[in-house]
Amino acid sequence: MTVQRLWLTDFRNHKALEVSLDPGVTVVVGANGDGKTNLLEGLAWLARGASFRGASTEAMVRKGADRAAIRAEVVDGDRVVLLEAELVASGRNRIQINKNRVQRRRDLLGHFRTTVFGPDDLILVKGAPPSDGP
Asked: What is the CATH number of domain 2-126?
């Protein structure tokens, strides 16, 4: 499963962003505040229907907008799956898979898989071992 294209509209600090991705490893580079993590958050939202940062929908909609949109074309074998989400700041979000409305977030699972490994996860490899007693 690979992401072929990603669109963000009024998502976090991205007014309008379209990215085409080649198969293989993609490196996202930019200055602090450019929206690198926001791009990843948009992708992860399409996989889970929620922010890996624990953010509210209102926080993900760009200031001054009433809704945000996330779209991605995901290649799975020989088929292309279109995942779309409309995040409404003060209302109900809408999710579609190949233009078919999804009623529950859990119906997103399996169409696009992500794993988030953030700075807090380094505790697993850098943290001190647990003590054996009092």
From this structure: 3.40.50.300
